[in-house]
Amino acid sequence: MMKSPLPTRLSGPAESPGFLLWKISNAWQRRQRAALQPYELTHSQFVLLATATWFGSSETLTQARLSQLCGVDPMTTSQVLRALEAAQLIQRIDHPEDPRAKAISVTKTGRDLARKAVVAVEEADTAFFEPLGSDNKRLVAMFQALVEANERADE
């Protein structure tokens, strides 16, 4: 038996959940980029626009709140929101309760685009995860558990 060139407990990368997640994530991101290309949105732009559309219908969103909801760091959130604002998909308006803050509001054009793009994203997800069949629900539950555990660890 050949000695491993790395000090690992694994027989190879195919046994590493992190490596597999990285490969799967890259493949999934390629699919998402292709699905969003007709809408001229990056995946980060889509996530922030869709989240703002979803949550903005029930609460006044600030940049900090949107960053928290998406799990996107504040600096990236700021940069992406500037691009969405330049494209007239969102606007920053005076916050109704905090004079120091701006509220993020999705424009009609932004809502219309989010509605179209979410269909493409969900179709891409369905095709990507189709090989899992009925295990898809189990995968989602495992993802939710990982998200919850890591959000607690980050507090």
TrEMBL record:
Residues 14-151 form the HTH marR-type domain. It comes from the Bacteria. Gene3D superfamilies: Winged helix-like DNA-binding domain superfamily/Winged helix DNA-binding domain. Keywords: DNA-binding, Transcription, Transcription regulation. SUPFAM superfamilies: Winged helix' DNA-binding domain (SSF46785). InterPro entries: HTH_MarR-typ, MarR/SlyA-like, WH-like_DNA-bd_sf, WH_DNA-bd_sf. Pfam families: MarR (PF01047). PANTHER family: TRANSCRIPTIONAL REGULATOR SLYA (PTHR33164:SF64), TRANSCRIPTIONAL REGULATOR, MARR FAMILY (PTHR33164). This is MarR family transcriptional regulator. It comes from Bradyrhizobium guangzhouense.
